[in-house]
Design a protein that fits this description.
The chain is of the alpha+beta class. It has three domains: 81 residues; 130 residues, GAF domain (Beta-Lactamase, 2-Layer Sandwich); 193 residues, Heat Shock Protein 90. Helices cover 51% and strands 17% of the residues. It has a five-stranded antiparallel beta sheet, with helices on both faces. Helix 2 packs antiparallel against helix 3 and helix 6 packs antiparallel against helix 13. The protein is elongated.
Length: 461
């Protein structure tokens, strides 16, 4: 296709940035030409005029021109660059603190970052009822857990508007130190409601100007934005955990009754084997119904998968199911999400077995660059490309009445919950040849044993 020239729009012709750059280039040319002329005039004056006064005046004009050029074109860019870098650095620090949620520790870091950028003598963050963090010369007056210091705290939380207070107040609960006579209170918002306040205190009323107002509002908005992001992430994680717990609690009645039936049939013919199966069955469900919020080791996850396989092998017979393992012993203590191998083994047994013959399954765990890979490979019936492409679609799985998609989607959610979205599942399958499912876990598992981060609506007793 031939290139087509498009006339610039009016907005493009009058772009302020382009106009400014054009004006700057033009002035650079003018100033450069003026400098050359002054230098030529200086040389001529020194060679032709015995009186030094014209030369001194020319030199003075040249110096003034250099200063004019520096302050008009060089210094503003330098100051703007430094100011921009500082602003971005402060915003980055606030984001890093607020990423931890609305806690005393994170807000204490935010207070220490904000205070040097203002004329305030002290600063504090409240949850609307109690002081959470404070900093400044008079920070001891506002320890965590202290009652609100500003007379405007309650009204700001209620209205969601920035308030400036000055002078005395009538609220007996407010104990503003004598050295502080004015302040700015800005709301910290999450959604449509204020969950706390950012409060700046000044020694003199005259220290509060438009810049201080803009700083208080801007810092409060930065903190609010990050707190809102944290709350969304927290709610998303809670939803994922609830869904996983719901899936975990669903006991397959067919598996339960078939396993019990198998054990009952072995009680008379092979009581020792029945005893071992009862132990495996008990351990299997104890692990399945246990805590799913914590990671387990590769060794524990493989052991759980082998319990399931042993129960299935007892049901179908050794001539129908066989398994082998290739596990790097150095990975046995590596942390992995719980309940990720058993659903894949279950899919192999349910959907991979032929009418006759033995289904061979190979279970492997190996180290890969940046993480670990667990794989379940079988020589079963396999699947076509269309089935493989919809393997992680739970809606389609429910519609088709097959559990493979539900199980795979469940495993994928667990992987993302514990290891993030970079970790994934690879599926290779060929009809009548077999299927290989590889779980790729990159990086280290998130610390699932940490204390649950408090809600942004938390209060302090």
């Amino acid at each position: 296709m031939a290139n087509r020239l498009v006339a610039p729009t009016r907005a493009q012709r009058h772009n302020p940035t382009q106009v400014a750059h054009t004006w700057e280039r033009s002035m650079n040319v003018v100033l450069g030409a003026s400098t050359v002329l002054l230098l030529a005039l200086l040389v001529q004056t020194l060679t032709t005029q015995p009186n030094p006064l014209p030369a001194v005046m020319t030199i003075a004009g040249l110096v003034l021109l250099c200063f004019f050029y520096a302050f008009v074109f060089v210094m503003p860019d330098d100051l703007t660059s430094k100011s921009t870098d500082r602003t971005l650095g402060i915003a980055s620090q606030l984001f890093s603190y607020a990423r931890g949620g609305f806690t005393e520790k994170s807000m204490q870091g935010a207070c220490r970052t904000i205070l040097p950028e203002t004329f305030a003598a002290a600063i504090c963050v409240t949850d609307g009822k109690k002081v959470m963090a404070s900093s400044g010369e008079l920070f001891s007056a506002f320890p965590p857990g202290h009652d609100p210091v500003s007379p405007a705290t309650a009204s700001v939380v209620s209205s969601g508007e920035v308030v400036v207070f000055v002078g005395e107040h009538d609220d007996p609960k407010v104990t503003l130190p004598d050295q502080l006579h004015a302040g700015i209170v800005a709301p910290l918002r999450v959604g449509d409601s204020a969950v706390g306040t950012l409060e700046l205190y000044y020694r003199r009323q005259g220290q509060i100007d438009q810049r201080q107002m803009a700083l208080a509002s801007g810092f409060a908005e930065l903190l609010s934005a990050q707190l809102a992001t944290f709350e969304l992430e927290r709610q998303s994680e809670i939803s994922a955990r609830v869904e996983l717990k719901a899936l975990q609690s669903q006991v397959d009645p067919h598996f339960l009754f078939n396993t019990l039936g198998t054990i009952v049939s072995l009680v008379r013919t092979d009581p020792e084997k029945a005893r071992r199966l009862i132990i495996d069955f008990s351990d299997y469900y104890r692990q399945t119904l246990g805590d799913s919020d914590k990671t387990v080791t590769v060794e524990q996850e493989i052991r759980q998968g082998m319990r399931y396989f042993t129960l299935m092998q007892a049901r179908y017979g050794d001539d129908r199911l066989a398994i082998s393992q290739d596990v790097d012993e150095a990975l046995l203590h590596k942390s992995v999400p719980p309940f990720i191998l058993q659903p894949i083994l279950e899919n192999s047994v349910k959907h991979g077995m032929r009418e006759v013959g033995t289904l061979h399954i190979r279970l492997t765990a190996q180290e890969i660059p940046g993480g670990v890979a667990l794989s379940v490979e079988d020589d079963g019936v396999g699947m076509d490309a269309q089935t493989r492409d919809h393997l992680f679609d739970p809606k389609r799985a429910r519609h088709d009445g097959k559990g493979a998609g539900l199980a795979m989607n469940n495993v994928l959610q667990r992987i993302h919950l514990f290891f993030g979205n970079d970790s994934h599942i690879d599926v290779e399958s060929t009809p009548d040849v077999g299927t290989k499912v590889t779980i790729v876990l990159l990086g280290d598992a998130l610390d699932q044993q940490r204390e649950e981060t408090p809600n942004v609506e938390r209060t302090h007793s």
